[in-house]
């Protein structure tokens, strides 16, 4: 991963250790292979969005907590110059607000390069998901139904449905994506992020 972005693997490792979980235990809970988790923690592999969802769910935290510390505020104001960015498998995630007490919504801007897709690895998770297309064209597949998003288009859906996306164009796509956590979770966590938007 580009060193100008946070060390997600090390943060995941710290959460795991703080919860007294072995790598093998986290592997079992998250349903990710031991080898994959080990490489993510060591920074040898960039986690996919779906992988981050699985890890966040297993650790009972927000996906965004892998990029910034869990907050205790009641209001978050983010200046453009303060936006946190994370690169995952070529996608750039820009956090638009994180740090609320018991936060349930996680907003991001995602920049998707030409040719990127996760159609062979669809994601599903708890909660809801909202996408607003800022720039370019993105194809979304939800429960085997295709939706073509162009600038100004949006889509809202129950995230428990298998969903995937692809940028078939030669241009960059930018979307606002909002993950909503299942309110029955003891701690909210978006089940996103590059594959799920957090790929498996």
Task: Give an overview of the whole structure.
With 200 residues, the chain is an alpha+beta fold. It has a single domain, classed as Sandwich (Jelly Rolls), CATH 2.60.120.10. The protein has 4 helices and 9 strands. The strands form 2 sheets. The chain has a 6-stranded antiparallel β-sheet, with no helix packed on it. Strands 6-5-8 form a 3-stranded antiparallel β-sheet, with no helix packed on it. Helix 1 packs across helix 3 (34-42). Residues 1-5 and 186-195 have low confidence and may be disordered.
Structure described in brief:
This protein is of the alpha+beta class and 200 residues long. It has helices at residues 8-18, 23-30, 34-42, 49-59; strands spanning 84-88, 91-95, 105-112, 128-135, 138-142, 145-149, 154-158, 163-166, 173-180. Mean pLDDT is 82; it is low at 1-5 and 186-195.
